[in-house]
Amino acid sequence: MTIEEAPPLHRPGLTPPVLSPATLPQHVAVVMDGNGRWANARGLPRTEGHRVGEANLLDVVAGAVEIGVSELSAYAFSTENWRRSPGEVRFIMGFARKVLRAQRDILHSWNVKVRWVGRTPRLWKSVLRELREAERLTAHNTGLVLNLCINYGGRAEIADATRAIAEDVSAGRLKAGSINEKTIQRYLYSPTMRDVDLFIRTGDEQRTSNFLMWSSSYAELYFSPLPWPDFNRTELWRACEAYAGRERRYGGAVDKVLHEEPGGTGDPQDDEQ
């Protein structure tokens, strides 16, 4: 796909809703589910769903840029996806390699910074090369950060971080008593990743599927019945609007009911007068 063939950054007639910085999710995570079912419902092989779904990611990225999201994480291939048929895995890996090569110039022209988040073992070397090249090309961009989560698993990330911490404690580089949440954050695949504000899953499934478990601990969940190939930038904006209407308390609570004594003012100083 060339820059001329890519979906435009701005589509005529489509304007994102205006949300204040306080109500706009800064980090959106997306589980792009439903590609295979979308294809099978149309009498097509599952691989065709992946083909359309990968191309659709560009439109959602454009929508994130337009509305002002700072970071977008896309669950492209999980550590559990290796269990799929060898043919489907080969297609996904090969297609991911082609897509990365074709889309990195487009993302670069949109001022998007690409980051790979995941494990090295089992990942095709050719795919890893394309990921590293995309990271290198876009390293100095200052716009949206796009985390491409390929060969990623939430439990694997925490296990790898724990292993690295244990090794550093054993080597005397880290004191066990000093380990806290900030320490663990430094050992994750992407230490600078923001906490996820809005977690979207498409495909009419309602689970998080081992995605960004640490970073999504307080994320607002949004489940769309649409399969990923039908989830476009306007659907992303709809999810952002839903997020804007929610109240995030992070474990705290505000009692909105004032309990007053009959005839009292509700002012604690009344008891002292």
UniProtKB/TrEMBL annotation:
Active site: D33, N81
Molecular functions per Gene Ontology: ditrans,polycis-undecaprenyl-diphosphate synthase [(2E,6E)-farnesyl-diphosphate specific] activity; magnesium ion binding; manganese ion binding; Z-farnesyl diphosphate synthase activity
Residue ranges, annotated region (Disordered): 1-20
Cofactor: Mg(2+)
GO cellular component, one term: plasma membrane
UniProt keyword Iron present: no
EC number: 2.5.1.-
Binding residue positions for Mg(2+): D33, E220
Lineage top rank: taxon: Bacteria
Subunit field text: Homodimer.
NCBIfam families in the cross-refs: uppS
Name of the featured protein: Isoprenyl transferase
